[in-house]
Design a protein that fits this description.
By secondary structure, the protein is of the alpha/beta class. The protein has one domain (13-268): Rossmann fold, CATH 3.40.50.1820. Helix content is 37%, strand content 18%. It is built from ten helices and eight strands. The protein has helices at 13-18, 66-72, 97-110, 123-134, 161-177, 184-197, 203-206, 226-235, 251-254, 256-270; strands spanning 28-34, 37-44, 49-53, 76-80, 116-121, 139-145, 213-218, 240-244. The chain has an eight-stranded mixed beta sheet with strand order 1-2-4-3-5-6-7-8, sandwiched between helices. The longest helix is centred in the middle third of the chain and has 17 residues, at 161-177. Residues 1-11 have a biased composition (Acidic residues). InterPro entries: AB_hydrolase, AB_hydrolase_1, AB_hydrolase_fold. Residues 49-147 form the AB hydrolase-1 domain. It holds the Pfam family Abhydrolase_1. Residues 1-29 are annotated as: Disordered.
């Protein structure tokens, strides 16, 4: 069992009340116009680049524990609000992981960012894996935390107090950040429809992935079957499985030190200057 630290928030009571710690000041932030949406981003620090992709219904501010840790390790950190999430807008098209992946590439192009390690959480992990498939030359590696790559990988939904607290925080943040602050329920419905029917990548697709991948799975993930994580690690060439003990789908918020240790170890294994 991972050691508990004072900063830990297993119940997400602190997250519900206050959100994650504020992101540090950025070097640059703004919007990129792409495919009918304005995609918000912020770039922090300098060095080899890491892109953080948040989960469904969340926003970049949920990485408040991870951005400082990556900056302290000497990396440039780019955060992106997925289309329709946070400060980013969307058009009337249904949500698609592939469309969100193209948004990330548009931000990379706008920042003249040739290549980056991608850290994805939940929906952001699927977007990261899609990027690893469609644009491997732009992706140094994928840290894939808490997601499925086909519909069979998800558990039947069971509400819990932790999930309810996270959802409450998402509702508050959407009202504060979104260009359409009164449309949270429609937003949830549209994202949920995507989650129910996508992604749809199977063994033959995954076997063609050529970038380094870590499948990070929490011991108590509420949404993803552990055997699905094992399957992904088995069919993606060279992929490693890293099970994070004592945490759930919200590990980056619950036990930041545990999550950050795994994340940084991966990043430094795939970016220049990292261990061989």
């Amino acid at each position: 069992m991972a050691a508990f630290q004072e900063s830990d928030d297993d119940s997400l009571e602190r997250f519900e009340a206050h959100g994650a710690p504020p992101l540090p000041a950025s070097n640059e932030s703004g919007w990129v116009e792409h495919e009918g949406a304005r995609i918000w981003y912020a770039s922090h620090g300098s060095g080899t680049a890491v892109i953080l992709l948040h989960g469904g219904l969340g926003h970049s501010g949920n990485w408040g524990y991870q951005v400082p840790a990556l900056l302290a390790a000497g990396h440039r950190v780019v955060v992106i609000d997925s289309r329709g999430h946070g400060r980013s807008t969307r058009d009337a098209r249904p949500y698609k992981y592939e469309l969100m992946a193209s948004d990330v590439l548009a931000v990379m192009d706008a920042l003249a960012l040739e290549r980056a390690a991608i850290v994805g959480w939940s929906d952001g992990a699927c977007v990261a894996m899609v990027l690893g498939m469609v644009a491997p030359q732009r992706v140094a590696g994928v840290f894939f935390f808490g997601c499925n790559m086909d519909p069979s990988g998800t558990k039947e939904f069971v509400a819990t107090p932790v999930i309810d607290r996270c959802f409450s925080r998402h509702r508050q943040d959407y009202a504060r950040l979104s260009a359409t602050p009164d449309e949270f329920d429609a937003f949830v419905a549209a994202v949920s429809e995507m989650m129910k029917t996508e992604p749809n990548y199977f063994a033959d697709d995954l076997a063609r992935i050529s970038v380094p991948v870590v499948i990070a799975q929490s011991e108590h993930d509420e949404f993803i079957k552990p055997e699905h994580a094992e399957y992904l690690a088995g069919v993606i060439p060279g992929a490693e499985l890293n099970v994070l003990p004592g945490v759930s789908h919200f590990a980056p918020l619950q036990r930041p030190a545990l999550f950050n240790k795994a994340m940084i170890a991966f990043v430094e294994s795939v970016l220049p200057g990292g261990p061989s």
